[in-house]
Amino acid sequence: MELPQAPQGDGKFAGWFCDGKEAEDDQILNDDKEFYAVFRQDIKDARISDIPASCYNGTEIKPTFTVKYQDELLTENADYTVSWKNNVNIGTATAVITGIGKFFGTKEISYVIEAHRWNGPMKTVKEPTALVYGRAERKCTVCGKTESKQLAKLSPKMKVNVSSIVLKTGQSTTKVKVTGLAKGDRIASWTSGNNKIVTVNSSGKIRAGKKTGNAKISVKLQSGLQKQIAVKVQKTPVKTTKIQGIQKKIRLRKKKSCTLVPQILPITSVEKITFTSSNKKVATVTSKGKVTAKKKGTAVITVKSGKIKVKCKITVR
Ligand SMILES: [Zn+2]
């Protein structure tokens, strides 16, 4: 007896099979079983889906793709296996598809590994404050990866309108003002260095005690920045030493008005401010400093606090 000749069929003749296993030559010659011819297809004839570019990330890049033979979607590890070449570094990588089972042969498909392509420079997505870090980001247009960096907190800052004040025993003031804080910052505390001389509450109201002497008030921000105000407590009432903020000359049209806003120093002065006009027919002034032009001419407004006087010449046209 001779082995049967390889039959003609679709694909490559892979041998005679029996019960799902390839038959041995002597089995074919001796057994009285049913044998059938198995043909395998060349994987080269399969179609492989395109592989988009990937980005370098330091590890092996194994993109997914599909393998189709005619209309049949093939299954990895049943119809084919995949091995990879040059798939770590930037450049051209290759997937090697090897047919198994009903398939034989190999087919290669290459794909590109490139560096990230950022959509532009880092853009701020979260503004930093004095207390919280900010964040800037950029995005890769190829793989969608987001890269971010931390933005430094804002430098803390503050202005205090005075570096020192004078108070009479028992006098209190809310005229010490803190401004110019960096965004997000706030006052954390007001404290006195000597509560027997002066106390301060959480909103910055400063009160002199019964004793005279010197002490320091500290204002501390949430960011940690701190400033001190020197306080002197004396027996006598605090007197005005200077009047600021009054223009020497003002021109006004008839019936128009303006308001004089004097700044009294020291800010804790208890002396009253008064306003008087030298010629009420030309210009009048209220106790709040509002000047009204009445008729053409000139008038001098005197701003007085204690022994200090400043003058403003009003010309009405
Ligand atoms: Zn990328």
Determine the number of helices (DSSP H or I, runs of at least 4 residues): 1
Contiguous low-pLDDT stretches (5 residues minimum) are none
End-to-end distance, in Å? 137 Å
Question: Which cofactor or ligand species appear?
Answer: zinc ion
Large-scale geometry: rod-shaped
Q: Can you give the mean pLDDT?
A: 94
The strand count comes to 32
Fraction of residues in helix: under 10%
Beta content comes to over 45%
What structural class do helix, strand and pairing data support?
A: mainly beta
Spatial arrangement of strands, main beta sheet: 2-1-3-10
Output the radius of gyration: 46 Å
- Biggest sheet overview: 4 strands, mixed
What's the layout of helices and strands?
Elements: E1 12-18, E2 21-22, H1 25-30, E3 36-42, E4 47-48, E5 54-55, E6 67-69, E7 72-73, E8 80-85, E9 91-99, E10 103-104, E11 106-114, E12 123-126, E13 134-139, E14 146-151, E15 159-160, E16 164-168, E17 172-173, E18 178-179, E19 187-192, E20 198-200, E21 206-208, E22 213-221, E23 226-234, E24 242-244, E25 249-252, E26 257-259, E27 263-265, E28 273-277, E29 283-285, E30 290-293, E31 297-305, E32 308-316
Parallel strand pairs: 3-10, 5-11, 16-23, 25-32
Antiparallel strand pairs: 1-2, 1-3, 4-6, 6-7, 8-9, 9-11, 12-13, 13-14, 15-18, 17-21, 19-22, 20-21, 22-23, 24-27, 26-30, 28-31, 29-30, 31-32
The protein binds zinc ion (ZN).
